[in-house]
Structures are given as structure tokens and as C-alpha cells.
């Protein structure tokens, strides 16, 4: 499986997608922006281009010629997705920390880049994964519909979460007010988001394996 992951990282993915997390992460320096968008760029740009590249390279047929199981093929691809997601998250979090240094006393209308917000971002990516990955592995070839559905789910979550953050004074206080400086609270939200991300991604992986085992590769 390690070789499959390295195959994707070294041969299957355009090096540009390893630079994009840093470039897009710098958008966290824009004051008062809707920061969910920074992470959503992964879903909007990286995923469709990456899977389009896999298809143009006939990666599925090439991989099936290797001495690997379908289980390993799915596991490796899910790991690659997670690695890229984490690159986007880590880069955005670093720039978010710089943002807080540059603007020590900001007023946010949308969620600010505090730890709790990153917990929400992990949940958003988890929703994308649990929709996109199983749908894609119905065929392991067609990615358009799966990408659209995954993006729709992630954007719906982000939109609802942000709307609640604006409408509810309690939620606003937790993420942008006094709660934003409560490290125990913020860390708890972040950890909860990470746990949800891991759980839903594991569910997505198991569902994808079951579906991929039924796919006849020609």
C-alpha cells in the first residue's frame, strides 16, 4: 500500500497541488473574510483536477496490473486525499495564527480563525469525504457527480454553520467572543472536529471498499 501512496504522490498528482495549500492558505491573511472558502478550494479545485488527471492517465487500469488488492487501492487513494486535506488545513492554520498576530483585536462578522473554527473545517471535510469517496467508488472512474455531491454537502454544512454563527449570539460568542479566548473550549471543539473527521473518513473508506469490490474493471 505504501508503494501505491507514493505512486500517487510522485507520479499521479501534479506538483502544483502541493504548492496550492500554501498559496490558498495565505488567503487567511485577508481580514474579515469567509474563511471556510479557503478550505473549500480543496474541494473545488484540487479534487476534480486530481481525479481528472488520474482518469486521463488511465491510472485505474495501470494500478490493477500491479500485485495489489482492491482494498489496498482504496486505502491508498483515501490516504492520499487525507494527506492533501491535512496539507490544506495545516497551511491555513499557520496563516490563521499569523492572522491573529497581525490583527490582535479584530471584529469578525464571520467565524474568525480560532481553534474552534478549525474543528468545524474538519467536520466540513469529513462530510465531503463521506459523500465523495463512496460515490466515486461506485465506478472508480466517474468523478463528476461524486465531486458535485461532495462539494454540495460541504458547502451546505459551511453555510448552515456560518448562518447559525451569525444568527445565534451564543454561537457567535463561543467562536468569536469571549469563548474564542477559552483555550479549553476551543481545543475541545477542535478535537471533536478531528474525531468526526477520522470517524466519517473511516466510514467512507469502508463503504468505498464494499462498492469497489463490485466494480468490474475492463
From TrEMBL:
Q: Which domain of life is it from?
A: Bacteria
This protein's UniProt keywords: Membrane, Transmembrane, Transmembrane helix
- InterPro entries registered for this protein in UniProt: ABC2_memb-like (IPR025699)
Instruction: Work out whether the entry's keyword set contains Membrane.
Output: yes
The keyword Plastid is annotated on this UniProt entry = no
Q: Which residues cross the membrane?
A: 76-98, 110-133, 145-164, 184-205
Return the protein name. Answer: ABC-2 transporter permease
Amino acid at each position: 500500500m505504501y508503494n501505491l501512496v507514493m505512486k500517487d504522490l510522485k507520479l499521479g498528482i501534479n506538483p502544483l497541488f502541493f504548492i496550492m495549500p500554501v498559496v490558498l492558505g495565505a488567503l487567511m491573511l485577508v481580514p474579515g473574510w469567509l474563511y471556510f472558502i479557503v478550505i473549500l478550494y480543496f474541494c473545488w479545485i484540487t479534487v476534480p483536477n486530481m481525479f481528472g488527471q488520474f482518469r486521463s492517465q488511465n491510472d485505474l487500469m495501470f494500478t490493477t496490473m500491479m500485485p495489489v488488492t482492491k482494498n489496498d487501492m482504496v486505502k491508498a487513494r483515501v490516504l492520499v486525499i487525507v494527506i492533501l486535506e491535512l496539507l490544506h488545513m495545516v497551511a491555513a492554520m499557520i496563516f490563521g495564527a499569523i492572522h491573529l498576530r497581525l490583527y490582535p483585536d479584530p471584529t469578525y462578522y464571520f467565524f474568525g480563525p480560532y481553534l474552534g473554527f478549525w474543528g468545524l473545517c474538519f467536520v466540513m471535510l469529513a462530510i465531503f469525504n463521506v459523500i465523495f469517496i463512496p460515490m466515486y467508488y461506485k465506478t472508480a472512474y466517474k468523478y463528476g457527480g461524486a465531486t458535485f455531491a461532495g462539494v454540495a454537502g460541504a458547502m451546505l454544512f459551511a453555510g448552515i454553520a456560518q448562518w447559525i454563527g451569525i444568527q445565534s449570539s451564543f454561537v457567535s460568542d463561543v467562536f468569536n467572543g469571549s469563548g474564542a479566548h477559552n483555550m479549553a473550549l476551543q481545543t475541545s471543539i477542535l478535537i471533536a472536529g478531528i474525531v468526526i473527521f477520522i470517524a466519517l473518513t473511516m466510514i467512507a473508506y469502508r463503504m468505498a471498499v464494499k462498492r469497489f469490490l463490485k466494480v468490474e474493471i475492463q
